[in-house]
Amino acid sequence: MARYTGPVCRLCRRDGLKLFLKGSRCDSPKCAFERREQPPGMHIAKRSKLTDYGLHLREKQKVKHYYGVLERQFRCYFSEANRGKGNTGDALMRLLERRLDNVLHRLSFASSRAQARQIVNHGHVTVNGRRVDISSYLVRVGDVIRVKNRAKSLQLVTGVLAENSRDVPDFLSRVEGAIPEGRMTRLPGPEDVSLPVQTQLIVELCSK
Predict the structure, then answer these.
(1) How far is CA 54 from CA 15, 76, 195, 207, in A?
(2) In the predicted model, what is the mean pLDDT of residues 96-125?
């Protein structure tokens, strides 16, 4: 399945939840979800109630849209989470939270995860002093994410920090200076996930 390239505001309306896919625009009066909360498409009033399968599928789609992963990527994450010990749903969300693009967004180095992917792909950040241009890179405890010491990279990230700085979750720490950097202090837990999701429904769907 190819990556979705249509209006991302339709995804928020489809999932019935603001996914903050357009950065600062989602907090402004221009947000399409605030103006049109109903699902996209025609004949909305005639639509029947979601089936049990539909409820399970909607939870999975919500997570995919939020983190910007494709079906094959999501299946790989689920397989890895299912092989480990403990709660599979919590392990799945932990893997998604450790993605480099998500970490950059949570550190406020990017206004959205889509922008974070672009920043990573263009080589604007390093992990432990080495350039990483793969947005799905899984950050480990103790890893230091630093903006490259060049004018274009610094201008891009400091501009986002000045305009859209947010509170940093407990599993991350941020140092704002001449060269912004962040560190993962511990593995993220269920309480660190900012998306309200019923992971048990996803596990039941993907385990069939």
Answers:
(1) 11, 22, 19, 16
(2) 93
User: Cα(first)–Cα(last) distance of the chain, in Å?
Assistant: 20
User: 68 and 146: one domain?
Assistant: no
Cα separation, 16 vs 66, in Å, equals 12
Question: Residue 25 in contact with residue 50, Cβ under 8 Å?
Answer: no
* The pLDDT of residue 83: 92
Residue-wise pLDDT tens digits, 143-174: 999 999 999 999 989 988 888 777 899 999 99
**Number of domains observed in the structure of the chain:** 2
**Structural domain of 92:** 9-96+197-206
pLDDT of residue 137: 96
| Shared-domain flag, residues 112 and 86 | no
CATH number of the CATH domain containing 150:
3.10.290.10
Q: Is residue 4 part of a domain?
A: no
105 contacts: CB under 8 Å, gap ≥ 6? 111, 112, 113, 115, 116
Please indicate, yes or no, whether residues 63 and 114 belong to a single structural domain of this protein: no
The number of beta carbons lying within 10 Å of the beta carbon of residue 48 is 6
The residue ranges of DSSP E strands in the chain, in sequence order, are: 125-127, 130-131, 144-147, 172-175, 181-184
- Model pTM? 0.83
The mean pLDDT of the chain is 85
Whether 132 and 126 have beta carbons less than 8 Å apart is answered as yes
- Distance (Å, rounded) from C-alpha 149 to C-alpha 24? 25
Residue 1 has pLDDT above 50, yes or no: no
